[in-house]
Design brief:
Largest sheet: 6 strands, mixed
Strand order of the largest sheet: 6-8-7-9-11-10
Order of helices and strands: HHEEEEEHEEHHEHEHHEEHH
Radius of gyration: 20 Å
Bound molecules: uracil
Helix content: 25-40%
Distance between the termini: 70 Å
């Protein structure tokens, strides 16, 4: 039976290989596992059926220190080609982002790629907003209101997100809003890792079309999926990450301005802030960091 790579590890490997490819490095040589164990910097095929790769590993249980590195040996998928993920996507042959997003939506179709399609979703919630937005917000997955209306963040959490966007001095229509999974998980449960892994490639393609300057990951599910790392919100917040959408080749069209990825910031999910409003100040700090990056000023306070 073919063995498959863990989707997060697969994404991390693909990103690492793309990084090397972009530096002009295409060849990877096999070395004995013992030699690789001392080198924490490169992905190398070590034995038939195994790949050794340097990546952050959990120190214990769920949490992972972003600063520590380790080497792991994992089964290599016999039936999978990890280079496949850098193939050009159909939307990359068009320059109009509206058309490109439409192509991605059409590619998604009446999606049945994961179990969420048969667990009571009413419709796919693709994403909404400015197709050339400088700022993108990514949540976890649609709730009941979003499922009913086909638009992300239209329920209570959405109202709070709208207020957060307003506080930044901009309108909801100026940004692009999407989720990691496009179908409502039953009972608003957290999407499973395989559901995130199946759905997020479409989001990655959306991001590559929109080419934002900053992506804000709302909550741990969005942050961990986009960054392909496992860490607590405390570890993830308060800094920018250099982000490039995994599995999508960019800058293939010489007549378009280069886009070398963007910054990614992590903040609390609005639904969490509704449950614990004391954290709103912390979320505002995150948004101020984003505003600073984008050269935005908050609206002047009107005199009472
Ligand atoms: N929560 C999310 O993560 N996304 C939505 O669209 C709505 C609520």
């Amino acid at each position: 039976m073919p063995r498959t790579l863990d989707p997060e590890l697969r994404r991390a490997l693909a990103a690492r290989i793309r990084y090397y490819n972009e530096m002009g490095i295409y060849d990877f040589y096999r070395r004995p596992l013992s030699a690789v164990a001392e080198d924490v910097s490169a992905p190398v095929a070590v034995n038939e059926g195994e790949i050794a790769v340097s990546m952050n590993q959990p120190e214990s249980g769920e949490e992972m220190s972003p600063r520590k590195a380790a080497v792991v040996a994992v089964p290599r998928a016999i039936d999978e080609n990890i280079f496949e993920v850098i193939a050009l996507k159909p939307e990359q042959s068009v320059s109009d982002p509206v058309k490109a997003l439409k192509i991605i939506r059409e590619d998604l179709g009446d999606c049945t790629r994961c179990v969420l399609h048969k667990q009571g979703r009413k419709q796919i919630v693709f994403g909404v907003g400015n197709p050339t937005a400088e700022l993108m917000f990514v949540g976890e997955g649609p709730g009941a209101d979003e499922d009913a209306q086909g638009e992300p963040f239209v329920g209570r959490a959405g109202q709070l997100l709208n207020n957060m966007i307003k506080a930044m001095g901009i309108e909801r229509e100026q940004v692009y809003i999407a989720n990691i999974v496009k179908c409502r998980p039953p009972g608003n449960r957290t999407p499973e890792r395989d559901e995130c892994a199946t759905c997020s490639p479409f989001l990655m393609r959306q991001i590559a079309v929109i080419k934002p300057k900053v992506v804000v990951a709302l909550g741990a599910v969005a942050a961990k999926t986009l960054l392909a790392m496992n860490a607590s919100m405390m570890q993830l917040r308060g800094r920018f990450y250099d982000f490039r959408p995994a599995g999508v080749r960019v800058n293939d069209r010489s007549n378009e301005p280069r886009w070398d990825g963007c910054k990614l910031a992590v903040t609390y999910h609005p639904a969490f802030l509704l449950r614990d409003p004391r954290q709103k100040g912390e979320a505002w700090k995150d948004l101020q960091m984003v505003m600073n990056e984008l050269g935005m000023k908050p609206p002047e306070k009107k005199d009472a």
